[in-house]
Amino acid sequence: MDQVTDNFSLDEWLAWIERCHPSEIELGLERVRQVAETLQVLQPSSKVITIAGTNGKGSTVTYLETILLKAGYSVGCYTSPHFRRYNERVRLNGRNIADEELCQAFTAINNARGETPLTYFEYGTLAALEIFQRKQPDVVLLEVGLGGRLDAVNIIDADVSVVTSIALDHIDWLGDDREVIGREKCGVFREGRPAICGDADPTQSVALTAAQTGAKLYQVGDQFSYKRTSEHWQWRGVCGAGEPLQLNDLPIPDLPLPNAATALQVLAVLGLNISLEPIYEGLADARMTGRMQRVELDNGTCWLDVAHNPEAAGLLAQRLEQKGQEVHLVLGMLGDKDIASVIETLRPQVSQWYLADLNVPRGQKAAVLAEHLQEEVAEGRCQTFDAVAGALDAAQLKLTGENCLLVAGSFFTVSDALDHLGVDD
Questions:
Q1: Is the peptide bond before 256 cis (omega within 30 degrees of 0)?
Q2: CA dihedral 308, 28, 123, 90 (to 10 degrees)
Q3: Strand, coil or helix: what is 403?
Q4: Are 8 and 108 in contact (CB under 8 A)?
Q5: Checking phi first, is residue 46 left (phi over 0); if not, alpha (psi -120 to 50) or beta?
Q6: Are 196 and 162 spatial neighbours (Cβ–Cβ below 8 Å)?
Q7: What is the pLDDT of residues 196-249, one digit of tens each?
Q8: How many whole angstroms separate alpha carbon 156 and alpha carbon 381?
Q9: Which strands sit side by side in the sheet containing 382-385, from one edge to the other?
Q10: 44 to each of 76, 98, 153, 174, 277, how far by Cα in Å?
């Protein structure tokens, strides 16, 4: 393997890290914890919130980040994957971290690891922790990459742990049973500390894992709840001392409402002083790249959403039904996703399909997607393309003020679309 040099650029570091380990994923904490101990990043002085779940992690992080920043706290965020630049994975006070900071962190990790092999994700996790150790934000938000119990972020004992939802995904790694998957995700729970579950239909393993670990469980529908009206919504929950709380006439957010309710319960037990104004403003202003992201084009509206599994597709279908417009969909997916269920979930809302090859590892061919849409193919309502750019160009030709364009199916699909549309970061 080629040697690291002191003047590696970020791109050179990332290319080198990709070559460091034969596997993209290797679950387990022993190796990454060993390096973290050498780096002295295992006991952050910041308050730490770890967020696991099949769907909803990103929007929960965004709600928390936006509200905390408006309340005047400094916030570090570690999320994945990224859309266009690796720097998106590490944010400090709402800004992507600079190349120089990441290079400094990677150098420190390489010096600390000795002969210990690390995966790409483990390098990234340790880099985020090393940066946050230097910058000392008030709050650190750590998004789990895969599962929870054996994910690299779980080397940190969080002050508050979150499981947003539990559904079948990454079955090759986590299994094909919700109870098993729930147990893996709840592996982020800690003894004597709050554990928030935002899944309205939790597996039995959630309460069981909380009881076994001694975590204090706050379950949506029990300890906290929410109710939407036509123009506002109401939240009820409890503080860390168990006293009831209620917020009325909250603004309807652009991101999923269940995750807003979960975020408010996290804040209720976090132990920070947060007034009503930043909560209302944060809910109204929370936005994310690639989650019902709206882009106005010359001849109509384009929406972008990374929905890539059945649960996310179900939420997206609900949003599309509420909008009531004819939908033209550019869809590209990875081959290890539940393609049939995603297509079937979106099918009632889509009038025209533009299927694209994803030219990345694990990317699926458009022709394979089309096998699930034989009726639409026969009716001339489904076309295939060898790249997202071509599918997007064809779809835009049919875009008017009476319909809308949707791009979905994967982070890679949305990323390619953002690049092709020239959308700024």
A1: no
A2: 50
A3: strand
A4: no
A5: beta
A6: yes
A7: 999 999 999 999 999 999 999 999 999 999 999 888 999 999 999 999 999 999
A8: 50
A9: 293-297, 300-305, 403-408, 326-331, 350-356, 382-385
A10: 12, 21, 13, 29, 29
pLDDT digits (tens, 9 = 90+) for 349-387: 999 999 999 998 889 999 999 999 999 999 999 999 999
Top pLDDT among 23 and 325 is at 325
CA gyration radius, the chain: 22
- Residue type, position 387, single letter: A
Residues 83 and 402: their CA atoms lie apart, in Å, by 29
Strand order in the sheet with 160-163: 95-96, 90-92, 75-78, 139-143, 47-52, 160-163, 194-197, 216-219
Mean pLDDT, the chain, whole residue set: 92
Under the banding of pLDDT at 50, 70 and 90, the label for residue 424 is confident
Residue 244 pLDDT: 97
The kind and range of the H/E element at 245 are: strand 244-251
Please tell me the distance from the alpha carbon of residue 209 to that of residue 74, in angstroms, as a whole number. Answer: 32
Residues 6+ apart with CB under 8 A from 153: 50, 78, 125, 142, 143, 144, 145, 188
Q: How confident is the model at residue 25 (pLDDT cuts 50, 70, 90)?
A: low
Q: Across-strand partners of 227?
A: 234
């099949």: which residue's tokens?
Answer: 54
> What letter represents residue 239's amino acid?
C
pLDDT tens-digit series, residues 162-180? 999 998 665 555 556 889 8
Q: What angle do CA 6, 8, 10 make, to 5 degrees?
A: 140
Phi-psi region of 236 (alpha: psi -120 to 50; beta: other; left: phi over 0): beta
pTM recorded for the entire structure: 0.88
Residue 315 has pLDDT above 90, yes or no: no
Model confidence at 404: pLDDT above 60:
yes
- Mean pLDDT confidence for 132-155: 94
End-to-end CA distance of the chain: 34
Q: 3-class secondary structure for 32-90?
A: HHHHHHHHCCCCCCCEEEEEECCCCHHHHHHHHHHHHHHCCCCEEEECCCCCCCHHHHE
Helix (H) or strand (E) holding 170: none
Nearest to 249 by CA among 283, 287, 300: 283
How far apart CA 259 and CA 248 sit, in angstroms, is 17
